[in-house]
Amino acid sequence: MSATEQLSHVTATLAIDFVIVGGGIAGLASAFALARAGHRAVVLEKADGVKNRGLGGIRLPPNMTKILFHWGLKQQVKQHALTAYPILFQRYETGQFLGGQVWTDSLLEETCGEFLLTTHGELHGVLTDAVIASGVQLRTNVEVIEVNGEERTVRLSSGEVLKADVIIGADGVRGRCRAAVTGHEERGTPIGVSMYDTWVEGNKMPPDFAQFLEDRSNMFSTLDTVLMAFGNRCAGHGYPIRGGSAFAFCYFQEDDDTTDGSYEDAPSVRLAGMVVGAEPRFQFVSDNSELAIRIPIREYKDLEDWVDDSERVVVIGQAAHCFPPGSIQGSAMAVEDAAVLGKLFSHLSSTSQIESFLWAFQDLRQSRNRACMVGEMLNVHMQMLEDGEEQRARDEMMLSRHEAGKHVFDAEEGEENNPVWEEIRAMFAYDCEDEADNWWLQWGRLRQRAQEREQETSEGRGAFSCAIQVSASVEH
Questions:
Q1: Sign of the dihedral defined by the CA atoms of residues 159, 161, 162, 165, in that order
Q2: Of 79, 113, 206, 419, whose CB neighbour count within 10 A is largest?
Q3: Any residues with CB less than 8 A from the CB of 455 and at least 6 apart, and which?
Q4: How many CB atoms lie within 10 A of CB 245?
């Protein structure tokens, strides 16, 4: 039996107050996780709660969906999602098919999750309904202008001040909370690539697109397909959303423009005429897509600490780790962060544990996030390889496996397992809640008992001292 199975129904014996700055996926997920653990939470969102629900697609990997399922949200999430099985790979400029990979039933069973395709707005809606039903106070159209860890307060633009036992920063890399932890604002370093996030109604897709997908997907006995296109210093991927009535697309292109952009921006970029050199189907999609959001990819220095000096402010999600836009694991890591916080604080019995729980959260999450973020940045690089020796080696490897009747990540002759596939399996199978419960069983419970013994000893000394003083008084 895993640690999570042993401790799955634990709720805190001491309930405390959390203020969560930011009402995106990270903020809502953390509020729900903490409410499940018996705590009180207020979420502060500067937008209206609707405009910040993105229309574009989002891929939910098994390590993320297993958490949502464990939280009792499986039916709600799957009501708005498609289950993805294969990924098809092709060349961006020519449409040449390179091969495919299937998320097999054995893999999904091992990971205890599913690979789902939905929209940011639909996932945001599911989490919003969940937090409200759990008693979380969700406040929209409120702007936080100051975070004070020493006073444990946040100040709103209206002048209102809210106090909490812990302040959680889920307000992104440019938010007040990250600056409160680091002591300064950060802009990051552009890498010269931007991602354009858009979507297309199904009736505006290329006339032959359905047949194109069916011809290739029949090899994998499913149509719910992610299509990835590798180009010469460009790339793109697409997948069905909204029950297959629309398709989400992301385009990656070199871009020297250093103007900022984020998912919070209103779609404003028309891709028609801007995306050039793509094969006819991808070109058709870009020419007929809705307005896109442009997000430059930036690199940020790793935060040494996610907890501020007061040990009462902690950052999570993009505020702590800045994943490139369009990545699979960005939102997944935010939900994992939330789940770990909820698990740790389900064991709270004294305010003296707060600091140790926040540092444990950092210890449990930093290396995991760093490894996933490095992998996502490498994925962007791999998809956009400049034509040359490295690109040809990649394509020839994929083609040779396809022609041999294998999947892209199948093992070579003489290999027991493909290292890349094993890395993917480990990433998807990772159980962050189990890791948090293991920390509690191995370390947290011991610390709690040590603190209890120290308190009992202190109280005993105090009683002994009082007895001596009383005795002395009687003698006199």
A1: positive
A2: 113
A3: none
A4: 10
Nearest CA among 193, 160, 233, 177 for reference residue 384:
233
Which amino acid is residue 269, in one-letter code?
A: V
Please tell me what DSSP assigns to residue 233.
Answer: S
**Cβ within 8 Å of residue 371, ≥6 positions away:** none
pLDDT, tens digit, for every residue of 304-333? 999 999 999 999 999 999 999 999 999 999
pLDDT tens by residue, 138-166: 999 999 999 999 999 999 999 999 999 99
What does 379-441 look like in DSSP terms, one character per residue?
A: HHHHHTPPTTHHHHHHHHHHHHHHHTT--TTPPPTT-SS-HHHHHHHHHHH--HHHHHHHHII
Backbone angles phi, psi at 13, to 5 degrees: -85, -15
Cα dihedral 411→416→418→424 (10° resolution): 130
276: amino acid identity, one letter: V
Question: 250-276 burial, b if ≥16 CB within 10 A, otherwise e?
Answer: bbbbebeeeeebebeeebebebeeebe
Closest CA to 85 of 54, 63, 107: 107
Here the tokens at position 287 are: 């020419």
